[in-house]
Amino acid sequence: MKAFFTDIFGHHKHYNQQLIDVFTTHEATISKRSIPLLSHCINAHQIWNSRILKTDPLGVFEEHSLEKCRTLDLSNFDDTITILSEIDFHKLIAYTNSKGHTYTNSVQDILFHIANHFTHHRGQLISDLRQHGMEPPVTDYIFYMR
Predict the structure, then answer these.
(1) Does residue 97 fall inside a structural domain?
(2) Fewest CB atoms less than 10 Å from the CB: which of 48, 74, 88, 134?
(3) pLDDT tens for residues 72-124?
(4) Which residues pair with 102 in a beta bridge?
(5) CB 15 within 8 A of CB 145
(6) How many domains does the chain have?
(7) What is the three-class DSSP state of 113?
(8) Residue 8's closest CA among 108, 126, 134, 92?
(9) Tell me, what's the pLDDT at 93?
């Protein structure tokens, strides 16, 4: 299972970095929601990592420059690899969400949620690129694994 999650998060890092490259190249013509949405995805990943690692979280809707997104994405990947290497998948993590509600979930559930959240929003980002006349990279997991 750890190898599988390592592949999943490697996939996310690889294509996040590619999307950041596309956004950087076309920053003047991308959708106005692209950078805030990308920032949200990266923030959410960092927030979940921080809940597991007991570190300080970012704000869920904090907006970053593309270069800061690139750096945070790489840091998120490194932190997730630490989680995969050092923390039991069945460990329960108690946390308070952004609305002040307290919940408990396993590390495995949290990791799957992070991956699914990224996939959902990356689809929106790709749709925005197409709507603005740009050809996005193919980001399917199977392409990454080939």
Answers:
(1) no
(2) 88
(3) 999 999 999 999 999 999 999 999 998 899 999 999 999 999 999 999 999 99
(4) 96
(5) no
(6) 1
(7) helix
(8) 108
(9) 98
Q: Give the Cβ contact number of residue 126 at 10 Å.
A: 19
Query: From CA 11, how far away is CA 80, in angstroms rounded?
Result: 13
What letter would DSSP give residue 136? P
Closest CA to 125 of 13, 19, 7, 42: 19
User: Per residue in 33-66, pLDDT tens?
Assistant: 999 999 999 999 999 999 999 999 999 999 999 9
Per the domain annotation, does 101 fall within a domain? no
Q: Which residues constitute the domain of residue 59?
A: 2-92+107-145
- Which residues touch 105 (CB under 8 Å, ≥6 apart)? 92, 93, 95, 113
Q: Give domain status of residue 55, yes or no.
A: yes
Whole-number pLDDT of residue 98: 85
Quote the mean pLDDT of the chain: 96
pLDDT above 70 as % of the chain? 100
- In a domain? residue 98: no
